[in-house]
Amino acid sequence: MEKNYEDNAKIIKAMSDPSRLRIIDILSCGQKCACDLLEYFNFTQPTLSHHMKVLMDCGIVECKKDGLWSYYSLNNANCNKHILFLMNLITDKDDCICKVKSNLECK
Amino acid sequence: MEKNYEDNAKIIKAMSDPSRLRIIDILSCGQKCACDLLEYFNFTQPTLSHHMKVLMDCGIVECKKDGLWSYYSLNNANCNKHILFLMNLITDKDDCICKVKSNLECK
DNA sequence: TCCTTATATAGATAAGTTTCTATATACATT
DNA sequence: AATGTATATAGAAACTTATCTATATAAGGA
User: Cα–Cα distance between B43 and B63 in angstroms, integer?
Assistant: First the structure.
């Protein structure tokens, strides 16, 4: 029981940072490599690396390596429906109070 | 845009602590005064007071004073549907992966 | 083989969070 | 009025987090 509060808190905590919310938002348009993601932010490459680790550690994001590049994407398969729903809340353009996605152009 | 990530992160952050998840879980059974809430936890009264402040500051919980007592309840009216849904995820016994609520008895 | 490039890791620092003890506030009761 | 009780606030300690710089790793191309 206690354990469930802990586990859920960990996943929710991973989403409780503005930069990581934005990363989730960006990845909702499809996979991106680290260097592309980095262009959306003012922080450094190691900081992005840290954020991606947090998102991967709790299963929200997965990584596919190809040569020098790391391609990140939302790990929908691994996310339980609760987290998926929250991600949709944040990323779904049409049904979104926060309008976070409105300034992104998905290709 | 930036602002929305910040605002959403603040609300999500308020829910990213195991103790506060449990408080939300307990309040899903109905309003409780601080001293009743406190019995579920091992921390002190000022610590509970801190957690309630965090939950109230972002609008998840509201407080009704009656004499010496402070009655806390989930502020469903003020919560937008996104947050409500996440609270349901955590608190709804029948449709809940986390099963957080299973050990609570609502009267 | 050497250099460049993409990403990860190590370690430090500054800021934020959770918790505590001590104390204040404010209402109730005697 | 004095005392007791429920809650809030202040301030400090311990821990965690976000960020940085410097460096390591590992793959590709000259």
Answer: 21
